[in-house]
Structure formats: structure tokens, C-alpha cells
Amino acid sequence: MSLELYVDGTWIASTSTERIDVVNPTTEERIGSVPAGAAEDVDMAVAAARRALGKWSQTAPHTRAEFVSRLADELERRQDDITDIVVSEVGTPRRVARWAQVGLGIVDLREAVTAAKHFPWEEPLRNSLIVREPVGVIGCITPWNYPLHQITAKIGAALVAGCTVVVKASEVAPFTAHALAEAVEAVGIPAGVFNMVHGYGPIVGEAIAVHPDIDMVSFTGSNSVGKRVLELAAGTVKRVSVELGGKSAAVLLDDLDVEEFAKAVPHTVRACYMNGGQSCNAQTRLLVPRSRLSEAEKLAAKAVAAYAPGDPTSGDTKLGPMVTAAQRERVLGYIRAGVKEGAKLVAGSVDAPARTGFFVEPTVFSEVDPDSTIAQEEIFGPVLSIIAYDTTEDAIEIANGTIFGIAGAVWSADPERAKSVARRLRATQIEVNGGKFNGAAPFGGFKQSGHGREGGAFGLEEFVEIKSLQL
Ligand code: NAD
């Protein structure tokens, strides 16, 4: 019997004998399996988390932060091995996976540790003492696209805040979570503080959402499942944070010179195709002045040439496969919808490349109607839509004209003008003239991209209750 669930500081077997196969998307070969867990597994994990909560929540914040810091060090030591696991189960090109998949996971933990040092755990307010206390037991339900980072973004902050956690990783990419649990064990995080169960969403995920002894669910995934989790969690009035899908726009303003424009377009292609376009913050819509549409098409087509689909273990590859056969079919379905709705196919194909692996061609559409399917729905593949606009007001309206609001970008010759447009975009993380990622900055959704924030002190705030002692 395999011991594959990490509960109460030890490895145990699932109560279920059913298995879920895990497939390498590049080779299409089965690389192993994990238990299709049961609600009883969740019960055991929650009981362990609840038992551990009393002591952990009373441990000093700097001591909790010290454990999280050690976990970051341990992941750093294991970075190459974990990168290999991510590449084999997600198909992210290796050189991207090392920093964007595993590196980002380490950054999440380090930022939580830094935030703990300056966090206002207790502060006076007139005759009151304002006290921030852990929310309690947290159920973390996470997706496959960044299988380490999506967990560490939650647990770094939750553990530092004094919460205990039950993690249900994606059944599509569960081995990365397994490697994380091994690192947790290696650094001696007290038993029951971190627990991990495996299984399908409708069984194990739903058992978490309805569990009366879970105080909060932190969910990252699709909109349809996020809504389901919100509904189920309402039964016990538990707190829920949801990090959902996106359809982010890069807005190129009309004052860019030829050189700046030639920098912004390939930058957007890269921001769209990162991780095969399977990123919630992918910049999938490129908004350009109508007079510069053909210039944008030429530059995008040129940039796309560097993204020939290939083996993600090779150092040169920039575009790996889609994570599953179903995901490939979904992306191809959207490409066909784009053609059918009259968008101009500048690069890419409605057919998958004739080779093993769940690949699709890197695709660019132009003359895309902002209200069409490919401009409105999250595709989650390497598909960029170039959209022409007439005035800056139009550009802002188009950028804000979807149900989503997670990220975006603005480019202008005038940084102040770029910032003023960035302020008007209804989304959380906006790159201004290619501004760099900041792990301490808040990340999350406006509108139907969800609510709640992750990252640094903003992530920590999600996992505390605020109360006051009147003195
Ligand atoms: P998904 O919604 O299919 O699955 C996410 C998790 O929910 C998985 O662990 C899954 O097993 C579980 N789940 C499935 N059905 C469930 C149910 N009925 N009850 C409870 N849990 C259930 O999403 P996915 O395909 O793994 O990930 C892709 C999606 O995640 C995209 O929409 C993407 O935009 C989104 N995402 C968002 C962010 C963000 O920060 N906003 C980050 C990464 C991914």
C-alpha cells in the first residue's frame, strides 16, 4: 500500500483504492498515479490541522516565519529536481520552469517571511488594542498551471499568519505538491500544520468546501469551479478567496515611436505565450492604434517565429505542449472559433502539429472584434488577439470590456500618461512600459477574476481575523 497523503506529519495511505493516472504531456506517457482520495481523507487531514492549530497559532510570528524561511531554503536546495517534476507533468520549458515555476514558489515564501517582520500584529487605536489573529484551518485548492507557486502563494502567508492548512493540489500535476510535502517534512514543520491530500475536485475539493471544521477556503482555478466552491462554502459561512481566470490586455498608446513599438509587441507576445499561454495573467489581447495594425501584425509574426513548439526539456524551447489532450482540444476549438468569426489568422494553425505531445502552433489573430469569442473568453493557450482601437478612451473601454480583471499592460512614450491609463484599467497587476514583476505587490482579481489578494503583506492580510480589545 502506497503512503501518499501527508497528514499529521507523516505519510499515510488514502482510504480510497481508486487511482488517478498522471501523464507527461510531451511524451503522452503515463508517469505515475496518485490516489483518487475520499472525503474520509479530508476528515483525517482536517482533524490533524485542527489539533495543531492551538499550539501553532500561539507560536510567535517570528518563529512561524523562521519555519517558512527554512522551507524556502529547502526548496532552493531541491530547485533542480522540482523543476524536472514540473517539466514532466506540466510541460513548461525547463529554462522558464526553473525561475517561473519553482523560483516563484521560493519568492512567495520569502515575501511572506519579510511581510511578517513589519506586519501590524497588534496596534493601539485610541482606547483599543487592535489584534490580528489567524483565521484558523485553511483549505487550499490549487490548479495545475503553476503547481508549486499556486500552493506556496497560499501556504507561505497562511503559515506565517498562524493558520494550519489542508492542501488539495491539482490531480493533473500532483507530483510537484508531493515534492513540496517532502520539503515540509525535511524542515520539521510541526505535525498537522501542513497536510496534503490528493484526489478529484468534485470529491476531495467539495469535501473541503463544505467541511464544518475548515474556517476558510483559498481557491485558485477556473471560474466555473470557483463559483461552485463559493456556493458550497456558503453553507458554513466560511471565508473564501477565489483567484480565477483572466483576459488581460496590453494597451499600446499612440505616442510610441517605431523603436518603442517594436519593443512592446514582442514583449506582449512573450507575456501571452509564457507557460504555453496557460497563465491566468497572460496578456492575450494586444490593443494598438488602428493606423498601426499592420506594423503590429508584422512584429508579432516575427516574434512568434521563436516559439516553435518543442521538447520542454531542451534548453532552446520556448513553447512546450498544452498540459492535457483536453486542453489542446479546447485551445484548437478557440482557434477554429476565431477563424469562423472572421478574425485574420496572422500566424498559427487550426490543426495541431503532426507529432507526439499535446502541442498547438503559436497563434496570432488580427482584426479581432473586441466582442468576439476569442477576445472575450479565457483560452489558456498560445493565442494572441490583436485588436485595433481609434481613441485612448476606446482602448480603455475595450481593455475593461470583459468579465475579467486580473492583469494588463500599458505602453507610452510618456510614463505619466502610461500611469494615468494604467490607473483606469480594472485589473490588479498592470505593467507600465514593461515594468518588472514584484513578488511583494498584490496579485488577484477585479470583477469575475475573483477576490482576495496574494503576495507579501497583502497575502498575509487574507489569513487574519481582526479584533479589538477595549482598554
Ligand atoms: P480547475 O478549476 O479545473 O481546477 C482547480 C482546482 O479545483 C483543482 O485542484 C481541481 O481538482 C479542483 N476542483 C475541480 N472541481 C472542483 C469542485 N467541484 N469542487 C472543489 N474543487 C474542485 O482549474 P485548472 O484547470 O486546474 O486551472 C486553470 C484555471 O485556473 C484557469 O481558469 C486559470 O485562469 C486559473 N488560474 C487562476 C490564477 C489566479 O491567480 N487568478 C492562477 C492560476 C490559474
TrEMBL record:
Annotated active site: E243
Entry keyword annotation includes Metal-binding: no
EC numbers, comma separated: 1.2.1.3
Oxidoreductase found in the keyword field: yes
Transmembrane segment boundaries: none
Domain Aldehyde dehydrogenase: 11-468
Top EC class of this enzyme: oxidoreductase
SUPFAM superfamilies listed in its UniProt record: ALDH-like (SSF53720)
Short name of one Pfam family: Aldedh
GO molecular function: aldehyde dehydrogenase (NAD+) activity
Keywords: Oxidoreductase
InterPro entries assigned: Ald_DH/histidinol_DH, Ald_DH_C, Ald_DH_CS_CYS, Ald_DH_CS_GLU, Ald_DH_N, Aldehyde_DH_dom
Catalytic activity from the UniProt record: an aldehyde + NAD(+) + H2O = a carboxylate + NADH + 2 H(+)
Family the entry assigns: Belongs to the aldehyde dehydrogenase family.
The name this protein goes by in its record: aldehyde dehydrogenase (NAD(+))
